[in-house]
Please model this.
Amino acid sequence: MIRTKKDWESTKTCGRRSEIRVRIDPMRSLFNIIRVLWLYLWAIIATLILAVPIIAAGLLSRTGNLAFSLSKIWAWTMLAVSFVRAEIKNRERIRPATSYIIISNHQSLYDILALVTTLGIQYRWFIKKEILKVPLFGYGLYASRNIFIDRSNTARAIESINRGIDRLPPGVSIMVFAEGTRSPDGQIHEFKKGGFVTAVRRNIPILPVTVNGSRRILPKGSLVVRPGKVQVVVGEPIDAGAYTLESVDKLIDETRRVVITNFDPGYAGRFLT
Model:
C-alpha cells in the first residue's frame, strides 16, 4: 500500500497529539495528588481544632444543639478549601420548630456538607455504629446526640432508634439517607423502610430533600475532589399520619417520587456562579 503525503502529515499530527497527551497526563496526575493532599491536610487541621469544642459542647449540653452548630463550621471549612459551594432551593417549605424525618438521596460524601450548611435547622443522623470507631470524628458525632444503629440486627436497630428519638429535644429533626449508602452509578435506588416506619409510628412528617451535583464533585470510590456547586432542593412536606404501617410502601413511593422529580443528574453548577 502506497502512503500519500497527506497520510504522512496525518500520522505526524496524531503523533504530536499523543506526545502532548503524554506530557499533560503526568501534570494532571500531579495536580490531582496535590489537590488531594491539600484537602486532607485541611480536613485533619479542622478536625483537630474543632473536635475538642464539639465533644465538650456535647458533654455540657443535653440537647446536642451547640455541638451540631459547631459541626457546621467544620462543614463550611471543608467546602471552602475544596472550592465547593452549596445552595438551597425552597427553604421556605421548612416550618420552624417542626421535627421532621428528612429523607434525602445519597450521591457523595459532599451531600453531608451541603445538607449541614444549607437546611438551617437542627437535625441528627441515623448512623451505622461502625462510625463510632473513627477517632475523634466518631465521638464528636456521638456527643452531638446522633443515633447509632446496628444494621446487622433489626431488633437492636429499632431499639436504638426509639431510644435516640426519645432523648432528642423538641423541634430537632432526623436525617436519613433512605438508599442506605451512596449511589454507585448516580441513579436514585430503592428506599429502605426504616425511617418511614419511624415516621408513621411517631406521626412525624416527612421532608423530602434532593441533592444535585455532589457526585460530580466527589463520586463514590474517588479521592479527587472537583470544584463546583452542590444544589439542595426541598420538597413539600408529607404528612406521615395519613399512612399506616400497612400502607407504608405508599409513603415510600410518594417520597421517592418527590425526590426523583427534583433530581437533576446533569447538574453541573460552577463555584463562582
